[in-house]
C-alpha cells in the first residue's frame, strides 16, 4: 500500500513497539539492473505442473513435448496494432495552416507493432494480452495459428497490471485452460509461447526461477513469476504454460541489457490476471478502491513475536482515521495473514490483493492481534479526494479535463475530473479521480505545473495517486 507523494513516510515497525508501524510501466520500460524491456506474455495461469522430462518409451522413441505443444499452440495468437496516423475527427486539425500555426506535425504517420496474446474463452472470443501491446491502438488484428486474421475489439485495459482484454468473433477457436499459478514452485518446468521479433510463433522451455517477484518498477502491481524460458520482444502478451498444458502466466518483461533474452524473464501470474479480466468484462476497466491503511513486511523478529511463518503476513503500520479500515476496526500493529481466503506473503502482496478488489466490494481479512486470530470485514470504498476548482482541457492529454486540488486554500495536486473512454488520455491510463502529483520526478501542484511539464520535449512520466496506490504512467516515450 503505497502512500501518496509529498507525505512523510511512517516510522518502520520495531519489535517492542506497543502497537505496530511501514510499505509505485508502459511500452518500452527500461529500469532495474540494466534495462527492463517490456515484452510480455498474456495467458491465464494454471496449476503448477511439474511433470519432468518425458522418458524414452518402450519403443525407443525419444522424449518430446510435441503432442502437448500441438494441443496448446492454437490458443496463442499474434496481435498486430496500428497506432497514430489517421485523420483527426476535428476538421481544423486537418488544415495545413492550422497545423503549422500550432506546431503540429505536418503528417500523422501510422505506426505498426506486434505482440502476442492468448485465447482464454473460445465461446465469447476473449483474448488476453498486455496493456502495453495495445496502448493507443486505433486498429487491432488477431492472427490465429491457422493464419486467419480477425479484427479485434478492445474490451478493456489496465496499466497497473499490464493486462488487456480483447474480443474477436468466436468462430472455431481454441482456448487455453487456465491453471493455478499460486501452486507454482521454483523448479517447475514451463513453456513460453509467443511471436518474438515478429518472426512467427515460437515455443521455448525452461523452469520457474522464482515466484512473487516485485520491485521492478514496471507498474503499480507486481507479483511476477520469474523464468529462464527464453522470451524476447514480441512475446509480450504471450503464454507461460505448465507441462499440463495450463496457462499459468502472461509473459510481460525481461531484464536484458542488450534488449534480448539473458535468461531472466517475468510473467504476470494467472491468479492476478483472472481478477483483472473479471473486472474488465464487468466494467471495461479495473475499479480500484480505497482501503485506508499501509503495511510493512514482517521481519524475522516480528514473525517470531507474532507466531507468523517466515515470509508471510503484513504488519499494519498506519490506519487513516477517516478510512474504511479504521471504521472496520483495523488497528496499527495488526498482522494481516489472509485476504478472502488467500495467504498474504508480505506488504506488496497485501497491496496487490486489496488493489484487485472492486470498489464497493468487501474484503475479509484474517488477522493476528496480540497473537490471537481475528477476522474483520473491510469495505473497499471508491477513491475520494478534495473538490477541484474548475475543469479544463489540456491539449497534450486529449480527452481529459483536469483541475487543481486544494487543501486549506493551497494547491496540492492536479485532479483528473473526467476522461473520455478510448481517448488518448484514457489510453495513457488516466482515470477520473486520479491525482497527478509529479512529472519526471518534479512536484506538480496545479494545472500550470502540469501544462509546463507536458510542453517539455522528451520522455514524460507522471506520478499518479489512485486510491491507496501510487502509479507511474508514461505519457510520452
Outline the structure in words.
The protein is mainly beta and 477 residues long. The chain folds into 3 domains: 32-55 and 70-286, Thrombin, subunit H, CATH 2.40.10.120; 293-379, Pdz3 Domain (Roll); 388-476, PDZ domain (Pdz3 Domain). Helices cover 14% and strands 36% of the residues. The chain has a 7-stranded antiparallel β-sheet. Strands 21, 22, 23, 24, 25, 26 and 27 form a 7-stranded antiparallel β-sheet that branches. Strand 7 (153-158) and strand 8 (163-167) form a beta hairpin.
What are the main properties of this structure?
single chain; 477 residues; mainly beta; Thrombin, subunit H; Pdz3 Domain; 3 domains; 7-stranded antiparallel sheet; globular; disordered N terminus
Low-confidence stretches: 1-51, 86-94, 97-102, 386-390
Helix and strand content put the structural class at mainly beta
User: What's the N-to-C terminus distance?
Assistant: 27 Å
The DSSP helix count reads: 9
Widest sheet, order of strands? 6-5-2-3-4-8-7
Mean pLDDT across every amino acid position: 78
CATH class of the largest domain: Mainly Beta
SSE map:
Elements: E1 36-40, H1 66-72, E2 76-84, H2 96-101, E3 110-121, E4 126-129, H3 131-134, E5 137-143, E6 149-151, E7 153-158, E8 163-167, E9 189-194, E10 202-213, E11 224-227, E12 239-242, E13 247-255, E14 265-269, H4 270-283, E15 293-297, H5 300-306, E16 314-319, H6 324-328, E17 335-339, E18 342-343, H7 347-355, E19 362-369, E20 372-379, E21 388-393, E22 400-407, E23 410-419, H8 424-428, E24 435-439, E25 442-443, H9 447-455, E26 460-466, E27 469-476
Antiparallel strand pairs: 1-13, 2-3, 2-5, 3-4, 4-8, 5-6, 7-8, 9-10, 9-12, 10-11, 11-14, 12-13, 13-14, 15-16, 16-17, 17-18, 17-19, 19-20, 21-22, 22-23, 23-24, 24-25, 24-26, 26-27
